[in-house]
Please model this.
Amino acid sequence: MNYEIVIGLETHVELGTESKIFCSCGGHSAAKEPNDCVCPACCGMPGMLPVMNKRVVELAVTAGLMLNCDISRYSTFDKKNYYYPDLPCSYQITQLAHPICKNGLVTLKTSEGTRDIRINRIHMEEDAGKLVHRGRYSYVDFNRTSVPLIEIVTMPDFRSAEEVIAYLTKLKTMFRSGGISECEEGAMRCDVNISVRPMGSEEYGVRTEVKNMSSFESIEKAINYEVQRHIDAIEYETEELVQETRRYDDATGKTFAMRDKETADDYRYFPDPNLMPIIIDDEWLEKIKAEKPVALDDKVIEYQEAGISQKEIDVIISDKKLGKLLDETIALGCAAKEAAAWILTDYMGVLRKSGKGTDSESLSAEKLASIIKMVEKSEINRGAGKKVLIAVVEEGADPKDYVEKHGLNKKFDADALKAAVDKAISENQKAVAEYKGGKEKALQAIFGACMKELRGAVNPADIRAMLLEKLK
Ligand code: ADP
Ligand code: MG
Ligand code: ZN
Model:
C-alpha cells in the first residue's frame, strides 16, 4: 500500500535579547563560563519573582507578524510543572491558555511547487538549564535557565522531509534577517511529530514525537527512519505503534523510545500568579509593526525585480548587516544589481582577506555609494574603485580623498595617457612592427605595457582607443 507522511513541528528558538526573559542576567550567548550568568531569580531561589522582559514580547510579535499570525492583544503565562535537576523551580514558565500569536501561515517553495503550512500558535517561554555528565558526577549549568524562547507549533501539514527542511531553512533566514535570533547551532531546536496513513485516508495515524533535534541532517534522517518504522509496523506488524516520545541517536541513525507521551494533565498547568497578563494596545502593536523589517517575501520580490540573482538574494537576506547595507546603498541612488555585486563580490572578498566579519561595520552605505558613483561617472575605473574599497575597509579611508591622494582619477589627465601610450610604442617596436604586419595579437603586449605604466588608473577602453588611434 502507499502511505502518506504526516508531520507537525514544534520549533524552539532562542531569542537574541540582551537579557533573560524574567531577570536581568545576560541572555543567550552572554555566558563564557558555566554558571556565570545566573542570579537568585533564574537559579530558583525561594521567594524570587519574575519580571517580564519587554523585548521578548516585541520579538515574539515580530516573529508572529513574519509568519502571518493573529497577534493576541491579551496573553498570559502558565506554570508547567515537572521535576528535573536542570529546572531549579520545578516548573517552567510558558504560555498554554493564551499564547502571544495564533493562526499563522507560511508558504514554502519545494521541488513540487508551493506548499502552505499552517501555524497553530507561537508562545513565549523560558529555557531550562543544562546537565553536564562527567565520569561519576553530573553537574548543572544554569546559564541557559530563563533564556527566552519562542515555540512555533505548526499544524500537521508537512508531507515530506523535504518540506520540513524547507520550512526550517525559511524560519532561519527570516529570523536572522529580522533580528529575532541568529539561530546558531543549538539555538533552534525541533520536536518532530510523525505519523503515516494510507494514501487518501482522512484520518491521522498514531504519531510519535522525536524530541530536541537541531541539525537539519539529523532531522531528515530521523524522519526517514521513523516513517519506515511506522510503515513496517503497520504493513508487517513488526511492533505495535504507540504514541510516545522518542530520541534520535546520530551514531546509529535510529530512534529510541524515551517515555510514554505525557499529556497536559501530567504537567498540572496553572496560571502563573506572579506575572500580569500582557496587553498589547494599538499603539504598541503599530510601533512593533513599524520596526519590523519588510516581510521577507516582499523583500525577495523587490530584489528579484531589481535583477539580483537568487543566489545573491539568499546570501543577502540571511545576513541582516548586508541587507541593511544594500538597502541603504540603493536608497542613496545606486542601482540595486550593481550595489549587490559590489557588496557580495568585492566587499565580501576584502572582508574574507582581512579576517573581518560583516558586522565589523567597516563600510558605510555612504562610502560604498560614493565609490559606485565615481565608477559610474567614469571618474575612476572599476579596478581603481576596488582599490578604494580596500582602503576604506582596511584603513577607514574616505573614498574621495583617497582617489585624489593616489591620483586614481588621472584619466582626465589626457597628457598622462598620451605619454604612456607613446612610451609603450617606442619601447615595443618589435610588437608594433608585428601588429602593423597583420599580427593582431601583438597589440596585447603594447597594451599591457600601457596598463602597467598607468597602474590601473585609466579605463582600459580609453587606453585601447588611444593606442589604436596612435598606431593608425
Ligand atoms: P502536544 O501538545 O501533546 O505535543 P499538540 O496537539 O499540540 O500536542 O501537537 C503537537 C504537534 O504534533 C503539532 O505540531 C501537531 O501538528 C502535531 N501532530 C498532531 N497530530 C499529528 C499526527 N497525527 N501526525 C503528525 N503530527 C501530528
Ligand atoms: Mg509536544
Ligand atoms: Zn538571572
